[in-house]
Each structure stands twice: as C-alpha cells, then as structure tokens.
Specification:
about 35% helix, 3 helices, about 10% strand, mainly alpha, two-stranded antiparallel sheet, about 80 residues
Length: about 80
C-alpha cells in the first residue's frame, strides 16, 4: 500500500483516503498518536476497525474522517 503524504498545498478529498490502513498509521494521521496509543484508541472505539483474520485488524480512515467531520490533511 502506498504511503500517504501530507500536503500543505493541495487539500485532497476524503474519498482519496484508502479504504483501510494499519491502525498505527491511522492513529498517527488523525491524532498524532504513537503505535501503542493508536491501538488503545482502537480498543476504546475511537478508531473504527474491521477484523481481517484471527488477530489482524485494519483501521477504516474514511469512516473516521466522516465521524470526525474533518479532513486529516487539513493542518488547521
């Protein structure tokens, strides 16, 4: 999966976010959280996720962006 690069010049559409991404990457993108904090946010229900296996989970950044009603690329 390609890495998401933050851009201050162009505001990408929320639909340009990937459908799923690793939980730590999603936590860092939306909240500036480190790996353990991202998993705590996921367990608390702040970061929506789906199970992709017996132990694997993926974050849903589009759902989170709409839930927060903000664009994660917006620096303000």
């Amino acid at each position: 999966m390609p890495k998401i690069k933050l851009s201050t010049t162009a505001m990408p559409d929320i639909d340009e976010l990937p459908p799923t991404m690793p939980i730590p990457e999603c936590g860092a993108l939306f909240f500036g959280a480190n790996r353990p904090a991202s998993y705590r946010l996921e367990r608390a229900g702040v970061i929506p996720s789906i199970k992709t296996g017996s132990r694997n989970k993926r974050a849903l950044p589009r759902v989170l962006a709409r839930r927060l009603n903000r664009d994660p690329f917006d620096a303000a």
